[in-house]
Design a protein that fits this description.
Radius of gyration: 17 Å
Number of helices: 1
Number of strands: 11
Structural class: mainly beta
CATH topology of the largest domain: Pectate Lyase C-like
Helix content: under 10%
Shape: elongated
Strand content: 15-25%
Length: 191
């Protein structure tokens, strides 16, 4: 499928729930305050693009390429990232809400989640080595058979990671959030 190449464009306050985004290859583009809620972004290519204050809730990302993408201040509810094209998959999330999204069985090594709300996010069987979860709320997020080696949870909170079910070698935690590793053992922690 040959896609039109669109480079270095800035899209502002567009509502793609009414008129779908043209299927193309977007390179070095910026999307600001755009609404992609329930949009079909399948088979679209985004390379080195920035999304700022956009709504991606329930967007269809089947075979979508996300290569070196930065999401800042975005609402990304219920997005199934495992449906993306896994070739060159790389992204960063800053001040985003990712509730009910899924990274099931993906390789997201070295991804940064900075100051994100991530309730009930699915990380089952994900390879998430060297991932940073800085100041992230991981309430009821699911970690099962997840490789979290060398990942940084020192300022993350509300997580429940069972060390028997996940690989956490060389991962970083703080004294304040160690209870998130012990909750599965049903023990009481007192000050």
């Amino acid at each position: 499928m040959n896609l039109q190449l669109i480079e270095e464009q800035h899209y502002k306050t567009q509502n793609y729930t009414i008129n779908s985004l043209h299927k193309a290859e977007y390179t070095n583009c910026t999307f600001t305050n755009c609404n992609f809620e329930n949009s079909d972004l399948s088979n679209t290519v985004f390379s080195e693009c920035d999304f700022v204050d956009c709504n991606f809730s329930n967007a269809n990302v089947m075979h979508t390429t996300l290569d070196n993408i930065t999401f800042t201040g975005c609402k990304i509810l219920g997005v199934l990232f495992q449906n993306c094209n896994t070739f060159l998959l790389s992204f960063k999330f800053i001040n985003c809400t990712l509730n009910l999204s899924s990274f099931y069985q993906l390789k997201i090594n070295r991804t940064s989640f900075l100051n994100c709300i991530m309730h009930q996010v699915d990380f089952n069987e994900t390879e998430a080595k060297y991932v940073t979860f800085k100041d992230c709320d991981l309430f009821q997020s699911i970690f099962d058979r997840t490789n979290l080696e060398h990942s940084n949870f020192t300022s993350a909170y509300s997580f429940n990671i069972n060390p028997n079910l996940n690989q956490i070698k060389q991962a970083s935690f703080s004294k304040e959030n160690l209870s998130g590793l012990l909750e599965s053992f049903n023990i009481k922690i007192t000050d």
